Amino acid sequence: MTENKGTIVIVCSGSRGDVQPFIPIAMRLKRYGYGVNFIAYESFRTFLKSYGFTDEEFTPFVGSMVEALQSKEGQEALARGDMMGIMKIVQKLLPFQPRNDDIMIEACSKSDVKALLCSTVVLNQVGSSIVII
Fold first, then answer.
1. Distance between CA atoms of 115 and 131, rounded to whole angstroms?
2. Is 18 part of any domain?
3. What is the domain extent for residue 99?
4. Which of 20, 26, 27, 110 is most buried (CB neighbours < 10 A)?
5. Looking at the domain assignment, is residue 62 inside a domain?
6. Into how many domains does the chain fold?
7. Which of 114 and 64 is assigned the larger pLDDT?
8. How many Å apart are CA 40 and CA 49, to the nearest integer?
């Protein structure tokens, strides 16, 4: 077993399209001796486990983008291609944001974090960022 060089926290606050691209990156980081911690909605725990990530490598957000988009209102907006309707659904998750901010801060403070990788959807903007700590 290689020495842990520190932890990379991977924050994915959107849909599967925000989580899946980080899986091969996380797998390679682990091979190079880094720890990883995915922060994502609970609905992705099983998905990440199917790639060999453990419960210790997963921290759940409060709320669920997937559940919001799978609701009747979400499905109707998606079927219509109604971006304003989709944004209204996403905005329903905003009350969870202060708690989710605390979850991210707590996850980062628990380990020797070397970098923070983020993928998120905010309103109509898709953003990814890497923060080296």
1. 6
2. yes
3. 7-66+95-123
4. 26
5. yes
6. 1
7. 64
8. 13
Query: Is-above-0.85 flag for pTM?
Result: no
Evaluate whether 93 touches 63 at the Cβ level (below 8 Å).
yes
Report residue 32 as tokens. Answer: 């190079």
Task: Give the Cα-Cα-Cα angle 49, 50, 55 (nearest 5 degrees).
Answer: 5
pLDDT tens-digit profile of 12-61? 877 788 889 899 999 999 999 999 999 999 999 999 999 999 999 999 98
Three-class secondary structure of residue 2 per DSSP: coil
Instruction: Report phi then psi at 73, rounded to 5.
Output: -60, -40
H or E element, residue 109? helix 97-109
The arrangement of strands across the sheet holding 58-61 comes to 58-61, 35-41, 7-12, 113-122, 125-132
In a domain, 84, yes or no: no
pLDDT at 2: 59
Instruction: Give the Cα separation of 23 and 7 in Å (integer).
Output: 15
∠ CA 41-43-64, nearest 5°, is: 50
